[in-house]
């Protein structure tokens, strides 16, 4: 059975064929081959390692015939003649939804335990943990932090497990910001 990947010699032949094809397309479109962008599939070798794009551009320039710079016969000399636009679309990335992690007040969990949870799982200083704990105590709810969904879910689970393990009814929830 034949290996589906081309050998090193076949790979270089294929690359040279693609370069010559790009040069021919540049002639047809009347684009300067020195300014033609190299497609991304030509920037990797057989092992997936990067090939210097400058080497491919120089090879294209060396193989480019001089006729590509001459105007077409027929007088097509208007504005925009001899130019082409090469675009590459990039995938749109969105910022992930953020979630607030909240502690709820109860009558049984000690204030010291809440401060310990805030320091251990939310990396708060003693002053900041005390401030949040007092906010929970006075207002019934307090924000521990804002995280992506997976991180917020993990923190809620860790806090709830830790509270259960130490026999405290502390409730921790998350809500979309």
Overview of the structural elements:
The longest helix is centred in the N-terminal third of the chain and has 22 residues, at 8-29. With 177 residues, the protein is of the alpha+beta class. Strands 2-1-3 form a 3-stranded antiparallel sheet. It contains 5 helices and 3 strands, in the order ααβααβαβ. It starts with 7 loop residues before the first helix and ends with a strand. The protein is elongated and about 80 Å long. Helix 1 (8-29) crosses helix 2.
Which class best fits the helix and strand makeup? alpha+beta
List how many beta strands DSSP finds. 3
Structural shape? elongated
Which whole number gives the mean pLDDT? 78
Provide a count of the helices. 5
Helix content: 40-55%
State the low-pLDDT regions, or none. 38-42, 53-60
Q: Strand order across the biggest sheet?
A: 2-1-3
What's the end-to-end separation, in Å? 57 Å
Report the radius of gyration as a whole number of Å: 32 Å
Instruction: Write the element-wise H/E pattern from the N-terminal end onward.
Output: HHEHHEHE
Q: In what range is the share of β-strand residues? A: 5-15%
Task: Give the biggest sheet.
Answer: 3 strands, antiparallel
Distinctive features:
177 residues; alpha+beta; 5 helices; elongated
Q: Topology of this structure?
A:
Elements: H1 8-29, H2 53-63, E1 98-104, H3 111-122, H4 126-139, E2 141-148, H5 149-165, E3 171-176
Antiparallel strand pairs: 1-2, 1-3
Helix pairs in contact: 1-2, 3-4
Describe what is shown at a glance.
With 177 residues, this protein is of the alpha+beta class.
